Structures are given as C-alpha cells and as structure tokens.
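In the previous lecture we treated proteins in isolation. Real proteins rarely work alone, and many bind small molecules. This record shows how such a complex is specified: first the sequence, then the SMILES for fe (ii) ion.
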Amino acid sequence: MGRENSLDLHEARLSASFVMTEKLHKFHDECIMPHLQVGAPSGAPLMKNAIQLLTDDHKKIKSLLEELANTSTRAVKKRAQLLDEVATMLKIHTTIEEEIFYPAFKQAGNKDDAKTYFEAMEEHRAAGELVLPDLMGTKPDSEQFSGRAKVLKELVVHHADEEEEGMFKRAKSIFDKAALDALGERMQARKAQMLGE
Ligand SMILES: [Fe+2]
Ligand SMILES: [Fe+2]
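The predicted 3D structure, ligand included, written as tokens:
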C-alpha cells in the first residue's frame, strides 16, 4: 500500500468514527434525554419554588372541597373520608404558610403587605378554628353538613384566590428566584416532616 492510499484509509476511518459519534449524540439527545429530569439528579423529585408549591396545594384542596360540597346526605362514608383529607391538607398547608411563607413575606414587605398578612391570618383562623371544627362535629347525613361544607369551600376558595392574585403576585416582586426556591425547599421539608408525624 502506497503512502497516499494509507492516508486515504486513515481519513476514511476518521470520518466513519465522526459519523458514529454524531449518531451517538443524536441517540442521546432524542432517546435518553426525554426520560431524564433536566436540572435534577436522576430519581430526585423536581423542587418547586414557594409559589408553585402553594398554588399546587390550592388546586388539590379546592378540588377536594368541590367534591365534598357536591356529595349528598346519603354519601356518609364518602363525606367522612373527604373531610378527613381536607382537614389534613388544610392543616399542613396553613402551617407551612404561617410558619415559613407568611413571616418571610411580612418581613420583606411594606406596611400594606403587613395588612395583607394579618388579614390572611384571620382567614386561616376563621376556616381552621371555627368553620372546619364546626363541620367536623356535624352529622354527615344531615343538611347542616351540606350547608357547612359549602360555606367552608367558599371561604377557602376566596382565601386561596386572594392569595394568588394579591400576596403571591406581590411576593414575586419582593423575592428573587433564589429566595423563592429556598422558601419552597423549606416548606417542602416541613410538609414531609408533618406527613411523617
Ligand atoms: Fe393561606
Ligand atoms: Fe394558601
């Protein structure tokens, strides 16, 4: 084999290995990447920031309350089971807000934000210490239960909507991305701790 032929062969090999590497990259990008959670180590849950975490909770609680308010006086078992879920979720949600999110919001905000804070705290008290315990002490086969379940739903939906439209929008301008992520992480840890209790 002459020197020229040997160089040609070398070039052909290089170009074949280049094509192969390209194919491997393509396979990686198209077939492997979609199955991986980008930005999180494989298997770890994707962290939500504070607003995402609280808004997702709102969606779940609203849908449970909607379901509860639509039950009939005959659905005794269902009512008890749904009420139990609502009570647990409300307890966890209001606790992470009152222990972590609200104080951070009040501290970082201005006078108007402090007013929002106190109003939100009172709404928690109305739902968690008055309306919910009242409903829990009501016979699930009664019309009083139906009425009280609707009142709880309306109170919580109003409160959650107000938080999303007011406090959370404002929080996005008060806190930077890192602060919202850190608050989300702390609330997630507190949630996990309460669920384990
Ligand atoms: Fe709240
Ligand atoms: Fe909330």
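Summary for your notes: Helices lie at 3-32, 50-69, 76-108, 111-136, 143-174, 177-196. The chain has two domains: 3-35, 50-196.
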